[in-house]
Amino acid sequence: MKLLRIAVFAAFLAPRMMAAQAAPYLPMDDISYSYVDALMSRGLLQGLSVMERPYLVSRVRASVDSASAAEHSKVIKSYLTALSTSLRRYELTRPGDDPAAKMPFRAHATFDVFGTAQSSARRELMLADTLHAFEPGTTGYFVMGGGHLAGAVRVALDNRLNTDPEFAGRKDRKIAGRTEDAYLSGQWKYAQLDFGRVGRSWGPIGLSGLQLGNDAYTYDHVYGRVGTDRFHVTTVLARLENYVLSPGVESSRYFSVHRLGVRRGRFEGGLSEGYLYTGVHRGLEFSLLNPLNVFGLSWRNERTDGNLNFGADAAWHTNHTGTYSAEVLLDDIQIDKCDSICHEPSSYGLTLTAEGIPLVGDQRIFGSYTRVSNLTYRTPNVAERYASYGVGLGRGYSDYDEIRAGLDVAMIPRVPLRVYFAHRRQGEGDYRNPYPAVADYGTTPGILSGTVWTIDRAAVTGAVMIGRDFQIDGEGGINRNSNRMHIVGYDLNEFEGRVRLTWVPRWLVKFE
Length: 512
Hints:
This protein is 11% helix and 44% strand. It is mainly β. The protein contains 6 helices and 23 strands.
């Protein structure tokens, strides 16, 4: 750990000759992404990655400015204007700043006030529960930076957390809250090093990544990136919460994932490995901190026991015919000679998406198919489950498949809408459950175990910015359930939705 701290400190003091201006991240749950997605599906914002999020605010700003220089329809212009407005609370640069000059240290703070009305405490509305509520909340924002250093803190007081079954924090307080973002980021021309918490996802637009996703609540980690957009290596290293084996005995848990990314012209792709390792009194292991090491070889050659998986992704994006992407996760691959202990069902995940297929004018068609098998994200060692505080580090659910298709509507200024139909089959498999016994391998389904809960959903999702002061975002639709919550014969048709109204004050406290 001492050497790791020294490396982090040395990186932040790297030579100034590596020219770049640091910028904070645009949080992945910000309304801005509704406009980013709508614009990207129409061939704009080409400078942004299809497979890696979140984006730095400076990258989004540069893409918006570039897109705004061209002629667009009234609706698309309004999307660019709304996105530009939403970026302001995170930006440290000022109009008239020289991009080539070193930015002086600046900081500012602001806040918003919101209310959330929902028909389900569970965030995934396809699997909605029965708890209806309206909960108030407020979020405080603080961003800072100068030269090669940037940072941010985002703290939310949100009573919705008291009802969310996936939130592992205390739920007995009148005011619930958590730190959503808190990080420092050192950024240079060919390198970046962050420490702290912020949501991340490596996967297609609109879906959480299979190997590194944002379904789990944010957790502290080290993030590093070396290279350029054309060729780069990224890594995430985290110490997760301990797993209690018995009273007084806890297994330490660590997470390492890295990705080799390439981008050339319209193609973007990557190869990645994820590793979760655990043990009583086990510490960080340098072979699994090394972003250039091949975890799959250390796993066997150096006996670094753990939960290993491999990932691959690719995207092809064009200006006129849409963006097509795919992601594959291979978990628990058997290449050794052994007896029945190696004959467990395959563990894998798959996602295929098509975005921005032209229809008429600015209207677009989209579709996706995703599948996560029954035993994905778990091993016979329950402490190795691929999760942070009980929610998946990749997807938040396993043992399901889903097909979705719909229309991306751009007809009302400042109001991107997506109307869709989805069909989901959800088995009873869960990465939080114990792994099946060896004797049960032959009868364990590869996918869709137990009583299958089937959901057909017709819904609309969207957002709107009303001037600079108000934001509305949400989703609403009808769920047609068969065997709801895996109860045979429990069939129900019901409206399920969530909407959030936010007031964004224009007050900004500056520290310069």
